[in-house]
């Protein structure tokens, strides 16, 4: 297979310079201290401390700390790698948060999946905000005629593309950094409700619980079986890399743990040897009982196959804690801006689940940057999470009103508030 692009000597020099920085930083005392802190955090060790992460991926051009104008490579493939490496360097040298520099160059397995036999109902209007969408669902009644149209998705792997990517990376970073297959961001997370809404829409999801609950149960059973077959295929094909290090394991958190892989692991890694993220943001508008009946019941068999679970994203989980607290492998839970922090602090302490706080992005995105308001916001979190293992992860920032220095100040204020945190568990 011919390379789709061919970076020139200049681009290769740029990438190798960044690779040399990465190799040096990965071995540094600063980086090794972060790794020790992450392991202590995951283990609820007595010497643990709050971990602080800033996510800087979602930006309009000209707004972010690493913009197209900052990149020196010309080839599109090389520019993508350069951008990732420069963002990591920005975390370390400018923001000084708890992002860890891995001693390898990662690549994700290029996995595809066929359609359900019907088009996705997710619909975007030209000229609107790129985040906005609506649904024009292909299924309406979930009767026998609807289900006759559905097909289980067939997974596939571009083996030639995977081999080519590995070879190209190894050629660029030869004698500087090894190349390792790791997870792509969000690649292996599971959200059955998001998939369901692509088929029936948000309104359909809400109404079918009353108009046709049997059909909705049938749909979620279909989606559960579809995902279970995918899990089987991933394990059989040996496509599950470990994600127990500097890996994105869901909603911003990092995977350092000594609990994975499991002691009985032999041969290719299984779901049981890995972290997995589940969430159900779309069910935020239904009752806990409806969540338990229509969502959790179908996710539970999937969650049982995984080693350690990170649950949640933007949804407040305190209302469904009766279900989540029954999961023996739940290890971290997202405490979103809409969550009851005091409740979640008590719950996380009792079950020894990491309190993974997502502060409101508004306080860094408003035209006026109010440092005291942000510090008060952090202080409320620190007080609620006293005795927990605490991580504070800022996500969903799209603007700083051209003041990217706020990002570093955010990290400083999070650490200032965390100085009063107490490990009591």
At the third CATH level, what is the topology name?
TIM Barrel
- The CATH architecture term is Alpha-Beta Barrel
What is the highest CATH level, the class? Answer: Alpha Beta
What's the β-strand tally?
Answer: 12
Strand composition percent: 5-15%
State the secondary-structure class: alpha/beta
Order of strands in the sheet with the most strands?
Answer: 1-12-11-10-9-8
Average pLDDT rating: 94
* Contiguous uncertain segments of 5+ residues: none
Total of helices: 13
The shape is globular
Quick structural overview:
The protein has one domain (9-418): TIM Barrel, CATH 3.20.20. The protein has 13 helices and 12 strands.
Structural description of this entry:
It is built from 13 helices and 12 strands. The chain is globular. Helix 10 packs parallel to helix 12 and helix 12 (371-384) runs parallel beside helix 13. It has one domain (9-418): TIM Barrel. The chain starts with 8 loop residues before the first helix and ends in a 7-residue tail after the last helix. The chain has 425 residues and is of the alpha/beta class. The strands form 4 sheets. Strands 1-12-11-10-9-8 form a 6-stranded parallel sheet, sandwiched between helices. A two-stranded parallel sheet has the order 2-7. 38% of the residues are buried. The model has no long low-confidence stretch (mean pLDDT 94). The longest helix has 24 residues, at 213-236.
Topology overview:
Elements: H1 9-26, H2 29-43, E1 51-54, H3 76-95, E2 105-107, E3 111-113, E4 122-123, E5 134-135, H4 144-149, E6 155-157, H5 159-172, E7 179-181, H6 192-211, H7 213-236, E8 275-278, H8 288-303, E9 308-311, H9 321-324, E10 330-335, H10 341-351, E11 354-357, H11 362-365, H12 371-384, E12 390-394, H13 405-418
Parallel strand pairs: 1-12, 2-7, 8-9, 9-10, 10-11, 11-12
Antiparallel strand pairs: 3-6, 4-5
Helix pairs in contact: 1-3, 6-7, 7-8, 10-12, 12-13
């Amino acid at each position: 297979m011919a390379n789709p692009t061919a970076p020139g000597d200049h681009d290769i020099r740029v990438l190798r310079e960044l690779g040399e920085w990465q190799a040096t930083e990965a071995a540094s005392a600063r980086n090794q201290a972060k790794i020790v802190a992450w392991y202590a955090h995951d283990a609820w060790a007595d010497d643990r401390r709050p971990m602080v992460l800033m996510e800087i991926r979602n930006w309009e051009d000209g707004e972010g700390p690493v913009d197209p104008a900052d990149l020196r490579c010309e080839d599109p493939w090389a520019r993508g790698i350069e951008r990732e490496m420069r963002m990591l360097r920005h975390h370390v040298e400018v923001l000084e948060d708890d992002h860890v520099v891995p001693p390898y160059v990662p690549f994700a397995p290029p996995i595809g999946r066929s359609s359900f036999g019907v088009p996705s109902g997710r619909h975007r209007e030209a000229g609107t905000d790129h985040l906005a969408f609506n649904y024009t669902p292909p299924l309406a009644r979930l009767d026998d005629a609807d289900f006759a149209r559905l097909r289980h998705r067939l997974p596939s792997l571009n083996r030639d593309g995977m081999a080519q990517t590995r070879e190209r990376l190894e050629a660029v970073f030869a004698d500087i950094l090894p190349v390792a297959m790791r997870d792509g961001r969000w690649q292996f997370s599971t959200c059955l409700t998001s998939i369901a809404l692509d088929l029936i829409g948000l309104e359909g999801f809400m109404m079918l619980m009353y108009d046709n609950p049997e059909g909705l149960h049938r749909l979620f059973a279909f989606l559960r079986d579809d995902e279970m077959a995918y899990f089987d295929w991933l394990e059989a094909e040996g496509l599950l890399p470990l994600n127990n290090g500097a890996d994105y394991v869901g909603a911003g958190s990092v995977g350092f743990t000594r609990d994975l892989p499991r002691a009985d692991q032999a041969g290719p890694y299984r779901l049981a040897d890995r972290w997995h993220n589940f969430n159900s943001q779309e069910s935020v508008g239904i009752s806990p009982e409806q969540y338990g009946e229509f969502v959790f019941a179908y996710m539970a068999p999937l969650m049982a196959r995984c080693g350690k679970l990170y649950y949640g994203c933007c949804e407040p989980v305190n209302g469904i804690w009766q279900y989540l607290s029954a999961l023996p492998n739940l290890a971290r839970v997202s405490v979103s801006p809409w969550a009851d922090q005091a409740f979640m602090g008590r719950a996380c302490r009792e079950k020894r689940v990491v309190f993974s706080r997502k502060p409101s992005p508004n306080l860094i995105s408003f035209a006026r940057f109010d440092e005291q308001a942000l510090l008060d916001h952090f202080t409320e979190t620190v007080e609620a999470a006293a005795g927990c293992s605490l991580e504070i992860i800022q996500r969903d920032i799209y603007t700083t009103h051209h003041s990217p220095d706020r990002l570093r100040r955010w990290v400083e204020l999070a650490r200032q508030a965390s100085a009063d945190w107490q490990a009591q568990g």
